[in-house]
Amino acid sequence: MPLIAVTRLRIRSPWYLPAFQWHAFRAARQARTAPGNLAIALFNDAHRAFWTCTAWKDLDAMRSYLAAEPHRSAMRKLARWCDEASVVHWTQESAALPTWQMAHARMQQEGRPSRVNQPSPDHVAFRIAVPRRPGGQQTKPG
After folding, report:
1. Where are the domains of the chain?
2. How would you write the pLDDT of the chain (142 residues) with one tens digit per residue?
3. pTM for this one?
4. 18/142 Cα distance (integer angstroms)
5. I need a surface site. Which of 49, 97, 110, 131 has the fewest CB within 10 A?
């Protein structure tokens, strides 16, 4: 059964955005060609929050991607760059990616916070903001 992985990272300062975006671009390119990757979607949320959603053949395929460059180097910087970070994984019958609303619900109900050096109050309380496009519009399903 495919493994779905969702991450949400909130960059704590605009100062870190250029470096984060460069690393994110490289990690996304890596994921698209990684053995065992079945699908990938990215969402640029309002307020410097970034979501990823990937489908993997299995847990081993996802772990191989996480341990490989360039993703491995990017992960080392996230505790300093982010004030909110979380992840959730689950298995399901198909490799179809969930909507962002479904990903948010799973994250809030089943996810876990990742370590950050300067956590926001929302990170400490594990409150995950509903995904919104820049300008305040809520995302549409799909």
Report:
1. 3-125
2. 999 999 999 999 999 999 999 999 999 999 999 999 999 999 999 889 999 999 999 999 999 999 999 999 999 999 999 999 999 999 999 999 999 999 999 999 999 999 999 999 999 999 999 988 765 444 443 4
3. 0.91
4. 28
5. 110
